[in-house]
């Protein structure tokens, strides 16, 4: 038996932007912190103030790096969506559609009841990579739905052979 196909997608441009911003923040706050005592402004800056400026720069850089966190992983059974703060895992049966609406910044999973889950790992600014990623996810979704339908049909056929009623039959009635 072969290992099921597993895919992973991450945003490319947003990752680069967040890393560059993080580096710029650390450099800028370190420079400002080191230059605080230079000059006669009438304000007294102590060593603790300089350290605090560097710490603030590091904290802001960490916040900037959160934008490099989005990722989507998918296989034949599930899809896991990690956005900036949250991570959620869905069975393909729970997903109605993988979509990328016109003008949207990122893809999304359409769920029952007009709900959706944003997939920030697949972003419009990544252009061709985003299109390819959506196509792969749609293919995995389609295959999962076909397998589920085949399993239900097989279950109905087995039940018909036995002359019994299955849970699937009662749901469809």
Automatic annotation (TrEMBL):
- Could you tell me which InterPro entries the record lists for this protein? CFP-6_PH (IPR019692)
Domain named Low molecular weight protein antigen 6 PH is located at: 69-138
According to the UniProt record, where is the region Disordered? 146-173
TM segment ranges: 16-38, 44-68
Keyword terms: Membrane, Transmembrane, Transmembrane helix
Q: Could you tell me where the Basic and acidic residues compositional bias lies?
A: 149-161
Record bears the keyword Metal-binding: no
Protein's UniProt name: PH (Pleckstrin Homology) domain-containing protein
The species is Tamaricihabitans halophyticus
Q: What is the lineage of its organism?
A: Bacteria, Bacillati, Actinomycetota, Actinomycetes, Pseudonocardiales
């Amino acid at each position: 038996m072969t290992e099921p196909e597993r895919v992973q997608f991450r945003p490319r441009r947003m990752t680069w932007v967040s890393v560059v911003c993080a580096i710029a923040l650390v450099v800028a706050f370190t420079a400002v912190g080191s230059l605080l005592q230079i000059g006669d402004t009438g304000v007294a800056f102590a060593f603790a103030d300089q350290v605090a400026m560097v710490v603030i720069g590091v904290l802001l850089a960490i916040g900037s790096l959160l934008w490099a966190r989005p990722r989507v992983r998918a296989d034949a059974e599930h899809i896991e969506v990690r956005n900036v703060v949250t991570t959620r895992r869905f069975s393909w049966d729970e997903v109605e559609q993988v979509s990328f609406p016109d003008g949207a910044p990122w893809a999304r999973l359409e769920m029952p009841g007009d709900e959706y889950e944003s997939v920030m790992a697949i972003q419009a600014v990544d252009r061709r990579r985003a299109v390819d990623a959506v196509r792969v996810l749609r293919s995995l979704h389609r295959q999962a739905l076909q397998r589920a339908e085949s399993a239900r049909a097989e279950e109905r056929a087995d039940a018909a052979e036995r002359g019994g009623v299955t849970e699937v039959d009662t749901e469809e009635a």
